[in-house]
Amino acid sequence: MARLFAGPSFLGTMALVFLAIAALFSADMFLAGLERKESRVEAARLFEQGRVLMQNGKKAEAIERIQDAIAIERGNRDYRRTIAQAQFEAGKIADAESTLTDLLQSDSTDGLANLIMGRILVKEGQVAEAVSYYRRAIYGHWNQDAAGNRLRVRFELIDLLAQRNAKEELLAELLPLQDQAPRDLKTQSRLGRLFLLAGSPGRAADVFHGILREVPANAGAYDGLGEAEFARSNYRAAQRDFQTALRLAPEDRPTRQRLDVCNELLMLDPTARGLGPAERFHRSVKLLGLTLDETRSCIGQNPSPQLQGLLDQAGKALEARVSAARQGEASESNLDLAEQLWQIRRQECTPLPATDSPLALVLARLSQ
């Protein structure tokens, strides 16, 4: 009879033991989860303190707080990205690079980490390497507002390329923005100006025409359109656009200066349509005289025999009396002599002449 009761009693005891173990395990798991939750709350509190300290310019204290948060929650990428930014802003470049290298080794598509690394490389003067990180940031992963962040990074890269006058790379980054950029006036005006910097006046003109369709009396758009026409050597059209811009914004001094250059250039250009032989001859004489004065102002005491010979020819041509019948022939000779003088002036004189003066622009047009 004892054995009959021993079996069920033993099983019952074991069941109670297992139930006790399960209860203890559940309690332990609950407490562990509660502890993890409390730890995450504490980490978040420390991180927020660090973020506020960063905003207040207290970078060293911010780094300490965020490091404490990371010690609690090591796997949080947001904390590690933020501390990399704080380290960068505090001038701790090596620390920031180390943090970012670890982040990018585990996820090379991290948009913000790539952006911060790009900024660090710019600061170190490694611009070519920085550009590649900026591009990874543009096409990388962003936790929030991916489209907005990518657009902002592209504009930051564009500003970098514009500062370095890297026209081909700048244009390559600008082309996608034609469809992606916001249609507001400020952004479109900026885009038009950037196309001018990239050496694409045709696309710039398209942007400014688009602005004028929306805002017909926008002085800045007329000024930008004038710059685009000027860059394409459409000086008469540029003159009209600058005049319109000044009617809308009379105090704009840079536009006034560009209009003055246009006016002087158009009065000097001997190739303008509709000129009679006498006016063309008059302009060729003026052009040759200006070129001669510009050359004499920069040469030393011993010009080369070739340059001295051209100077003598130019002096004689300016003193010569030319009959009406010979004005056409004399015009061609004067212009040819002015071009030769200008070319040698570029070789023998320092500093180099300004390329955007009316004289330089007319002579460049003649040589085309």
Topology:
Blueprint: H1 2-55, H2 59-72, H3 77-89, H4 93-106, H5 111-123, H6 127-138, H7 146-163, H8 167-174, H9 177-180, H10 185-197, H11 201-214, H12 219-231, H13 235-248, H14 253-268, H15 277-296, H16 305-319, H17 327-348, H18 358-367
Structure description:
By secondary structure, the chain is mainly alpha-helical. Among the domains are: 182-268, Serine Threonine Protein Phosphatase 5, Tetratricopeptide repeat, CATH 1.25.40.10; 274-367, no CATH class. It contains 18 helices and no strands.
Mean pLDDT metric: 87
**In percent, how much strand structure appears in the residues?**
under 5%
Helicity range of the residues?
over 70%
Shape: elongated
What keywords describe this structure?
single chain, 368 residues, mainly alpha, Serine Threonine Protein Phosphatase 5, Tetratricopeptide repeat, 18 helices, elongated, disordered N terminus
Give a brief rundown of this model.
The chain is an all-alpha fold and 368 residues long.
